[in-house]
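Protein modeling request. Please complete all fields; requests missing the sequence field cannot be processed.
Requester role: graduate student
Desired output: 3D structure, token encoding
Chains: 1
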Amino acid sequence: MRARLPKVRIGDRRIGPGEPVFITAEIGINHNGELELARRLIDGAVEAGADAVKFQKRTPSLCVPRDQWHIMRETPWGIMNYIDYRNRIELGFREYEAIDAHCRRQGILWFASCWDEQAIRFMEAFDPPCHKAASASLTDLSLLRAMRASGRPLIISTGMSTMEQVETAVNAVGSRDLLIAHSESTYPCPLEQLNLRTIQTLQLQYPGVPIGYSGHETGLAPTWAAVAVGATHIERHITLDRAMWGSDQAASVEVQGFARLVSNIRDIEKALGDGVKRVSQSELRALAKLRRVVGCQGDSLSVKGAA
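Delivered output (307 residues):
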């Protein structure tokens, strides 16, 4: 009996083996709290050919530990308390209404990583196609269950986590409409730390779940390699300029690079094929010209011609 191929629908896209790779451009907090910058990043993702954009949504008073509230921080808006900074870069309801309208006009899906349950309720007002749990939230089982309670597909990232912690999270939310992304939470991540073969480990562990990759390295080749080893969904941070102020900018991909990322992923999909060995139509002429059977003994053929 043939194994069931995992497929999950996000918006109008089916995700899983045999489907086009689902590519998310993570805007995250690279908008630096500026709606116009968020719009420009959405436009860049559309131009590059991404399937979706993703933001991050926090309630700072819930997510920032109290002992960090009054730590002073240098920011583009001057020196301020950390809690004030976190509030400064959070987009509010009106900004997300504008983002929702802009994404609809541009024809691109959008959703967010929610870092607390109030943020989930906030995002639910926009009818997102799915929820995303960041690597930092993998062990927050109550948060994962709250996302699952929405009835929407759930993507979980697995950076900073052991396989046992991944198993606990999956057991908590179940494998229905679940997507798992291999990830390493170092920004930017050294190549020798990426461990892309974990994608295949997760595929073996969860054959009914589409496995993907959320990358934080510099460069594009590792993400292409992730697709080659079977990642069915990809997430990379997008930025207008890697030199911009912000903690995630250096591990992000500029718009022109993101376009190359998407274009080459589509080429890799074509090149990978379906794995069935066959003689292609375009080979027939070469076959007739170059291959000649000169002897046959049992099941063995002796062939002269081009290698």
